[in-house]
Design goal:
With 129 residues, the chain is an alpha+beta fold. It has helices at residues 33-46, 105-113, 117-125; strands at 9-17, 28-31, 47-60, 63-74, 80-92, 95-103. It is 25% helix and 47% strand.
């Protein structure tokens, strides 16, 4: 989720990124510039550096689709979290009105928690946890 200038968003911008918000509190559903601003404050609180590569951008009319590879550096231990996002934007009068993100949240959660979540789930299924 690359940073986006508030000037480029409509006042009623709508952001949705389906994710477990208990673990990834900056994701989920946000509405309006203030909530989107809070999203970025949350991200900056947990990550000291961010870099994005954007290998694909496709635009047609008022719709834009973007493939993003993001690299976030954790503040607490300098580890890099790397993930891919498919982002879909809708524009109105030159401003972003909707943002929809799709990503592999399972992989992202494992990187954020620094745990093999699949192993933890398998252990709990077999009564080992």
């Amino acid at each position: 989720m690359p940073a986006m200038s508030r000037a480029r968003c409509s006042d009623d911008v709508d952001f949705i990124s389906n994710a477990p918000v208990d673990i990834l509190p900056h994701l989920g559903h946000r509405h309006g510039k203030d909530e989107l601003r809070q999203t970025w404050k949350t991200i900056h609180a947990g990550y000291s550096g961010m870099r994005c590569e954007v290998p694909v951008v496709v635009a047609e009319g008022d719709k834009v689709a973007v493939q993003i590879r993001a690299f976030f550096r954790k503040r607490r231990n300098d580890r890099i979290v790397q993930f891919d996002v498919a982002a879909f934007y809708t524009l109105r009068d030159g401003r972003v009105t909707q943002i929809r993100e799709i990503m592999d949240t399972f992989d992202l959660v494992q990187q954020v928690l620094e745990r093999d979540v699949a192993a933890v789930l398998a252990e709990s299924r077999h009564g080992k946890v």
